[in-house]
Amino acid sequence: MKEEKIIIANWKMKLSLAETINLTKKIKTKFKDVSGVEIAIAPNFISLLEVGAVLKGTNIKLCAQDVFWEDLGAYTGEVSPSMLVEAGCQYVIIGHSERRKFMMENYEMIHREAKAVLGVENLTPVVCIGENWDERKTDRRDFVLYDQLQQALSGLDIMGNQEIIVAYEPIWAIGSGTAIEPTEAEYAHKIIKLTLNDMFGMKIVNNNFKIIYGGSINTKNAKGFIDLDNLDGMLVGGASLDVDEFYKLIKVITK
Ligand code: 13P
């Protein structure tokens, strides 16, 4: 399962609908020679169908930026896992730190969302964890990662070849222009892997989990990350918003 690294482009709420479609079209044209890496694009909710239509016939996958834990019902404004599958999504980001910050999402909600996503077929949750600056400064990172994983994933049944991606995004590195040192990411990923091993056993972790890094990845620093142990890919924000920059990033990674 782990041969190819995965790069997920999180476009957040940074592009208008027209810009979203325009960028997707440019990527479709420019990325024709890209191979050896899996790419997924996470546009805003209301662009999903159109972005999916543009990407038809390519290997680029569709990812949603959020999901609700119920399947159907009176939940105004929400979108369920099965609806995302219907819309063509193969991935969904869960519990991004921006949602934790602005929408008050907590790990109880993240747990419910992850469980609901695992309950439908062909949808992979990308569960975000990561410490804030204060936690890092006071040496609490390891515990924070352990605790977030426990809260998000404890008790989940992982069946067959169901995939789960854990995205390590140190909050203080997101959008800062400076990624953490690759060695620090490697260390954090090791903590994550050991915690997951404890929770699910090594076999399931090796077969069903991927661990990816996010936070100010760009063309200059990506190479330092991609060959790290326990790093299966990246969650990229800003550097995926320009077709040339994103293409260069992918080329750096696949070289
Ligand atoms: P940046 O790459 O812009 O720091 O964003 C990272 C991120 O939050 C991806 O989900």
From TrEMBL:
Cellular-component GO terms for this entry: cytosol
Enzyme class: isomerase
Taxonomic lineage: Bacteria, Candidatus Falkowiibacteriota
Single GO MF annotation: triose-phosphate isomerase activity
PROSITE patterns in alphabetical order: TIM_1, TIM_2
Keyword Acyltransferase assigned: no
Main location: cytoplasm
Gene Ontology biological-process entries: gluconeogenesis; glyceraldehyde-3-phosphate biosynthetic process; glycerol catabolic process; glycolytic process
Identification of the protein by name: Triosephosphate isomerase
